[in-house]
Design goal:
418 residues, alpha+beta, f41 fragment of flagellin, N-terminal domain, Tick-borne Encephalitis virus Glycoprotein, domain 1, 3 domains, five-stranded mixed beta sheet, five-stranded antiparallel beta sheet, 7 helices, 48% helix, 20% strand, elongated
Length: 418
């Protein structure tokens, strides 16, 4: 086949353009540090990069969640530790009061110290972390606790039983807060079982004592009426000493549904079971009712309830202060109530410590995954600069030689071949 001058010229120009493209690509790679500049450079590589970058974005989000949560958990732990320090001091002072002969003036001084401690603990109970109330549950708009205008009691201003949950990985969620209902509140826990053979329309009842902030006794009465298989309508009432309801109107009934195969409580009003916050402000009655552990089990129905404390720590301190001002030393029960609160507080501090450890472990796992992904991305997308510089110099030399060859060819004329 005859090779024409046109073919030689076209081939030459194609080679020249290829060399120039390689030079440009190498220069761009060195400048940007990226091996792949556009999808056409490596379609499969771009697909992997998009997938890995998406995974990395998710990991970064989880890592950010953990950083924020760790700060919140640390603030919660420090706040509870400060409260625990105050309670320890109070117990020491009250032990001194009961173990020595003290004058009325001394009792007044101790009353003032207890009052100062109450104010400190109340302030800590309303502490915030990054704009969120540490013990406010999920309510970040209202300080959870406040002292009444006459300083006679501390009331609860919002539902402090809510849980704050964060996502630490694709399928892992973790609660990061310690609700105020667990730290300061009275928790009435119901245990036992309901017989599934109970006829529709039949009822099972349970009752226990609850108290207002002054220690006055009331009766919590809970009733479960069967409405269908494995389903019950739960209502409750709070009665005073004469058996009269103290509620302005009956609370709405709640539907309890049990799993027929396991007997476990499945839902309350169609939602995952959770404690019920009871707040009767007119009577200064505040507590959390937790029926989430009751089951449906063959046999006679048997329900029982018990409270973790008679009065919360705020109103216990107020009662002690008032007694001291009246010349009355604290009772053994009051000191025991403070001791019990201190022990529960230590348990909650231990729980937040476990939460902090879980967050740290999750963070370390995410960091390892981020490192692996960044390494994979760098291996695919990154440029070996030293190698690229050598290749660039080589291609530039070839380009210069090509230009020189073109100059030699272009200088020849027909006379050169005569």
């Amino acid at each position: 086949m005859r090779i024409s001058d046109t073919m030689l010229s076209t081939n030459y120009l194609n080679n020249l353009n290829n060399i120039k493209n390689q030079v440009n690509n190498l220069q761009t790679q060195i400048t940007t540090g990226n091996n792949i500049q556009q999808p056409s450079d490596s379609p499969s590589g771009i697909s992997e990069l998009l997938n890995w970058n998406s995974q990395l974005d998710q990991l970064n989000t989880y890592s950010s969640n953990i950083d924020t949560a760790s700060s919140f958990v640390t603030d919660t732990t420090n706040t509870m530790q400060s409260i625990q320090d105050e309670i320890t001091t109070d117990l020491t002072q009250l032990t001194q009061v009961n173990s020595a002969t003290v004058s009325t003036t001394d009792l007044t001084n101790y009353a003032n110290k207890i009052d100062q401690s109450l104010q400190t603990i109340l302030g800590l109970a309303n502490a915030q972390s990054n704009g969120k109330y540490v013990f406010g549950g999920t309510d970040n708009t209202t300080a959870p606790y406040s002292l009444s205008s006459d300083s006679s009691y501390v009331g609860v201003n919002s539902d402090v039983s809510g849980s704050q949950i964060i996502r630490t990985s694709q399928n892992v969620f973790q609660q990061i807060n310690t609700p105020g209902s667990e730290v300061f509140g009275t928790m009435v826990t119901e245990n036992g079982n309901i017989d599934p053979s109970t006829a529709v329309g039949g009822s099972v009842t349970d009752q226990t004592n609850v108290y207002d902030t002054s220690g006055n006794q009331y009766t919590l009465k809970v009733n479960y009426t069967k409405t269908a298989a494995d389903t019950y309508s739960m209502t409750y009432d709070i009665l005073d000493g004469s058996g009269t309801s103290v509620l302005s109107q009956p609370p709405a009934a709640k539907s309890f549904s049990f799993d027929p195969s396991t007997g476990a409580l499945k839902t309350i009003n169609g939602q995952s079971p959770s404690p019920i916050q009871v707040n009767v402000g007119s009577k200064k009655i505040y507590f959390t009712f937790d029926p989430t552990t009751i089951t449906e089990k063959t046999g006679s129905s048997s329900l029982s309830s018990s409270a973790n404390q008679k009065m919360d720590v705020f109103n216990t301190l107020i009662a002690i202060k008032n007694n001291l001002q009246a010349g009355i030393k604290p009772t053994a029960q009051q000191i025991q109530d403070l001791t019990d609160f201190n022990n529960r507080l230590l348990d909650n501090i231990a729980k937040t410590g476990n939460s902090a450890n879980q967050l740290t472990n999750s963070k370390n796992l995410l960091t390892n995954q981020q490192t692996q992904l960044n390494t994979m991305i760098a291996n695919l997308q990154g440029v070996d600069v030293a190698k690229a510089v050598v290749n660039l110099q080589s291609q530039q030399n070839i380009l210069q030689e090509t230009y020189q060859l073109a100059a030699l060819i272009s200088n020849k004329s027909l006379l050169s071949y005569i």
